[in-house]
């Protein structure tokens, strides 16, 4: 059966973490948005069967768009030594895909990404990641483990179970 995955972490957490973006008086983090179009897919698309090696997994593709304004703000932030913080795994895939390693910068683009981020991946631009708890053995938890380290993720999940956090965003 098919389902639509909604990139809800960014929608739910952006205003809570960053507050309202005010062009006139930027004090704290700047809240930027790029557009990602979630893929209509089978729930199983993001699960890795045990018989596969991670390297053999074919990641689904998502469409994204980065405006010239967002690219310019991100490039200036990098030049000024500010941190690039991604809210959600979809945003993470967008940021990592939209960054051009040849020019060491972001640029305006409308593209698709099938980037599969798993432990061992070398992040190009991300300094911080804020995300939901994800299903075990999913590509999303692999992305989080690539960023935070497997042991840190396991400790976070252990604490979440102990404290009875709510898990998952789809059900």
Query: Would you report the number of β strands?
Result: 9
Helix content: 25-40%
Low-confidence stretches: 1-6, 9-26, 40-45
**Helical stretch count?**
5
Tell me the strand percentage band: 15-25%
Q: What structural category arises from helix and sheet content?
A: alpha+beta
What is the succession of H and E elements?
A: EHEEEHEHEEEEHH
Which whole number gives the mean pLDDT? 76
The radius of gyration is 16 Å
Biggest beta sheet summary:
3 strands, antiparallel
Strand order of the largest sheet: 2-4-8
Cα shape:
globular
End-to-end CA span: 14 Å
Explain the overall architecture.
Strands 2-4-8 form a three-stranded antiparallel beta sheet. A two-stranded antiparallel ribbon has the order 1-3. A two-stranded parallel sheet has the order 5-9. Strand 6 and strand 7 form a beta hairpin. With 171 residues, the chain is α+β, with helices and mostly antiparallel strands. The longest helix is centred in the C-terminal third of the chain and has 13 residues.
Features:
single chain, 171 residues, alpha+beta, three-stranded antiparallel beta sheet, two-stranded antiparallel sheet, 5 helices, disordered N terminus
Outline:
It contains five helices and nine strands, in the order E-H-E-E-E-H-E-H-E-E-E-E-H-H.
Please describe the topology of this protein.
Blueprint: E1 2-4, H1 8-18, E2 35-37, E3 40-42, E4 62-66, H2 68-79, E5 85-87, H3 89-98, E6 99-100, E7 105-106, E8 109-113, E9 128-130, H4 139-148, H5 150-162
Parallel strand pairs: 5-9
Antiparallel strand pairs: 1-3, 2-4, 4-8, 6-7
